[in-house]
């Protein structure tokens, strides 16, 4: 059962984002990007108080995803990517992205904090950062 409201258009959008941001990280890396996207819709805290659906999340400005500024993001969603997006929307969570709202790819080690949020771990080249439960209880 979905943890956020979605449409087929939203699933395609999330699938394209997951592929564009993390195809090189494999399916697990893509699922973690999906976790971050779904968490931003659920969060209603910090930088994400006006995010009501996946369309709002993907195209949030400022603070949205860099992938949306590049042509690779605008390819058609593949069925394999749609299946991964549905898993994320249905609430499957993967460490270290279970409660993450941010990730980025540093040149070296992951910093302990990034914009005041704590590092929860690294998967391949991406570092993930999560708010405290006090700051964002609805994730």
TrEMBL record:
Family annotation (InterPro entries): Cell_wall_hydrolase_SleB, SleB_dom1
Annotated ranges, domain Cell wall hydrolase SleB: 24-129
Keyword Hydrolase included in the entry's annotation: yes
Gene Ontology molecular function, alphabetical: hydrolase activity
Superkingdom to which the source organism belongs: Bacteria
Keywords, alphabetical: Hydrolase
Name this protein carries in UniProt: Cell wall hydrolase
